[in-house]
Amino acid sequence: MATHLNSFDAIYQVVQLIPQGKVTSYGAIAAYLGMKGGARMVGWAMNASHTLENVPAHRVVNRNGILTGKNFFGGNRMQELLEEEGIQVKEDKIVGFQQHFWDPSIEL
DNA sequence: GGTATGACAATGA
DNA sequence: GTCATTGCCATAC
């Protein structure tokens, strides 16, 4: 149902819908939007959403559970945010990633 | 309108 | 199991 929204808006919506303490992967969002191979584009949208404060991009990590965009948050800002939500982060990687994984294609 | 880039993902060796 | 290469979509120049 994201066909009416632009790719960026659609991604923003999904990211904002991520529950606190949960994380998802770029591919999951892309797949939910129908852009299975457009995972890179999701990261691109995140870059644009970085200017916004309503988009918890810190809950979006790659399929490996690594905080790829941590560098874009300005240091360990991303890791601290995740830890505050109850997510353990070790070496820029989420501990029990599958445990905190939130798939929009299933939850939504 | 074509080329280059991007916070990825999947496959092959 | 890890490393390297290719593919995908959309945006930016």
Explain what the structure shows.
With 108 residues, the chain is mainly α. It has one domain (7-107): Orthogonal Bundle (Arc Repressor Mutant, subunit A), CATH 1.10.10. Helices cover 42% and strands 7% of the residues. It has helices spanning 7-16, 26-33, 39-49, 77-84, 97-100, 104-107; strands at 24-25, 60-61, 89-90, 93-94. Strands 1-2 form a two-stranded parallel ribbon. Strands 3-4 form a two-stranded antiparallel sheet. A hairpin with a 2-residue loop joins strand 3 (89-90) and strand 4. The termini are close together. It binds a DNA duplex (13 and 13 nucleotides) through residues 7-8, 25-27, 30, 35-48, 50, 57, 60-64, 67-73.
Task: Compose a concise summary of this entry.
Residues 9-87 form the Methylated-DNA-[protein]-cysteine S-methyltransferase DNA binding domain. Keywords: DNA damage. The protein is mostly helical and 108 residues long.
